Amino acid sequence: MIHFQQNFKQQLTKKEIKVIDETFSILKEEKDSNSIGYYKLYETSQDILKGVKRYKKENKYLKNKKIKNIVVVGIGGSSLGTKAVYELIKLKQKSTINLIFLENVDPLDIASKTKDIKKTNSLFIVISKSGSTIETISIFKYVLEKFNLDLKKDNSRLIAITDKGSNLSKLAIKNNIPQFNIPLNVGGRFSVLSAVGIVPLVLAGYKVEKTLEGSKIFIESFFDKKENHLLQKAYYYFKNKDKYCINTLFSYSTYFSYFNDWYVQLWGESLGKINRSNKKVGLTPVGLVGSIDQHSFLQLIIQGVENKTVSFIQIEDFGKKVQIPNINIDFLEKTDYVNSCNFDKLLNEECNATIESLIDEKVPTDKIVLDKLSEKNIGILLSYYEILTSAVGAFLDINTYDQPGVEFGKKKLVKKFS
Amino acid sequence: MIHFQQNFKQQLTKKEIKVIDETFSILKEEKDSNSIGYYKLYETSQDILKGVKRYKKENKYLKNKKIKNIVVVGIGGSSLGTKAVYELIKLKQKSTINLIFLENVDPLDIASKTKDIKKTNSLFIVISKSGSTIETISIFKYVLEKFNLDLKKDNSRLIAITDKGSNLSKLAIKNNIPQFNIPLNVGGRFSVLSAVGIVPLVLAGYKVEKTLEGSKIFIESFFDKKENHLLQKAYYYFKNKDKYCINTLFSYSTYFSYFNDWYVQLWGESLGKINRSNKKVGLTPVGLVGSIDQHSFLQLIIQGVENKTVSFIQIEDFGKKVQIPNINIDFLEKTDYVNSCNFDKLLNEECNATIESLIDEKVPTDKIVLDKLSEKNIGILLSYYEILTSAVGAFLDINTYDQPGVEFGKKKLVKKFS
Hints:
The structure is a homodimer of 418-residue chains.
Chain A: E1 2-6, H1 14-32, H2 41-58, H3 60-63, E2 69-73, H4 80-89, E3 98-102, H5 107-114, E4 122-127, H6 134-146, E5 158-163, H7 167-174, E6 179-182, H8 195-203, H9 209-223, H10 228-239, E7 246-251, H11 257-271, E8 273-274, E9 280-281, E10 284-289, H12 298-303, E11 308-317, H13 343-360, E12 365-372, H14 375-396, H15 405-416
Parallel strand pairs in A: 2-3, 2-4, 4-5, 5-6, 7-10, 7-11, 11-12
Antiparallel strand pairs in A: 1-12, 8-9
Helix pairs in contact in A: 1-14, 2-8, 2-9, 4-8, 4-11, 9-14, 10-14, 11-14
């Protein structure tokens, strides 16, 4: 269960309520017409789930428990969501298989991350929606050479995840490399609950059924009009976009740092667009981790220019109690007020105290409270943020799902090598 | 060597040149009067360096090479800078000792990070400038109990880094715990080259002399008026603060991610202030890693609201050549244009292509080029960003060095436990 609480107030006019209703209809139309596919991934991914389970049973290396590493070669939408879920799901489920992400073309990073990998105990997944991402294919080539992987002979060690019909897909077919496809109506940054996230996680030994269930629960609830807070928040962000141009997500747990990164891509790449009136619009995401960033970014929120909204993520029950010992130390008596408390209480009360400080300063805040760290809650949270993004995009009158600006540099890059 | 290149142009009026000169004088006065101490850390830290080297020779556990972990308990300014240098310096120097940072009061994080630590092979450093940071002291208590550390009997396993006269300092004196002090005129976020960074790094086996030397070189060069680009950039940021309210640092290497975090604290906490005309001012920092974030944040920079400046960090020579194999794969021929290139060339050309795209879109950019990853360059870069921060702060007419807003929540927190 997740509880959503908004601390900003807005009086909506009849006209505004109509605009909000229309936006709901836009999203419903995206879903019902299947023009946008992420709304139904909890359904369409069931086949992927079955497929990867079958693959797991049949793959000779996995069957014989020889696999210690699942190496994911992918960047952006092909890695960020999986990393976010992986970081959280590891807290709930145990596995002896590592997921390793080769994302960056930094030579030292690639060398370091592949140093301890052996061909004999690894599977390699190459993920590219378009099938031709230059970073991904370059690293894939490196992996092929370094581990002496033959596309045909070693196809049991290789998996491709890509769009049906892409060049990577054709390559997979030619070499009999198992492949899983991303639905064509699901964009990279909305693809975490497609094959992109499911295949690596399941192969690494994690169960994702409940995460898909969480997604289903939230999406159905939203389209049953039971999550009106979401549209109201989206509208508030849209309406105040000039004043509050930065939307901060302040997650109170170390383990949300990759979730924050996923949010940053989802929000930034979806909402930074030229709108249908030919105007550059967009909202800037910032991800913070509490309480660490109280000692970094909070001063700016409190006393800096009033241009930020702040959403807090809080976990009520961490599932593990770690106590602050009841030790009295001479000269440090002033810190004794937290003695015998659990660290989660300290963490959450810091979050609450920070929220109250921001309310005092009239910073628009809201709080997203997970009753616990659970697979289901992860699914709810992913879908919440995806729909929130779609809703703000609809208000902004943009195409939320493309990324034309990213192409500009690609052409220049090719020229530099010619 | 670091080369600084600015791609934005500004025509300065005589009046503006005078304002810039005055700001230079303010910074010079801060330095010469010793009111701000970070400008001279390359000098004042020499004693710390000698002290920690002596300590290293004399400490019975270090002498007998029994230490595998240096555990740093600290948050914000007490950890971010050290982490930034550690991540980079590890690429240049080898050591068998791990630096482990206990920063967050997240119960799962604390439990996980302390799981494999043993008392018998670890030293514990508690760092708090004020000496009473609630997170730090709470984790310190946890560490004392978990590892059965007695303040007196185990004082050879403990080190305190704090202000002279703080309660933590008094505790250290009482229990004969070795302590190193942070100069009173050096704020937490400017303290990386004080005992805060030097002691953990040196104990973990890293040489920091050249980093201090880099700092000295840049600071002296700046005050010799040989780095005027810095003041011009600072003035540009100040002058355009309403339009360009976000200053993005786009570092093209995975190993700059903690440097980015350090920058975010330095910039955000220093510049987000109520100015002397009682107005909330501030510039928002965002840290990005290239080329990864080309697939995340770049779309927003290119087509979103024009409210961002972007600084690029590029490393010319990574010191290690890792080649993209010359493999032609059917269907992937379009990616062959980078075959046989080194990954660093691909990475840097991606950076250059991105800069050109942003120039086309009239985004103000600048490029900071390190000829190589070196200890000296790290020192130059740290000091460059510190002085840049001071300069923008002087233009903004704020106290760059305090953080009053952070206190608001602290009082509320205490109440929650009473």
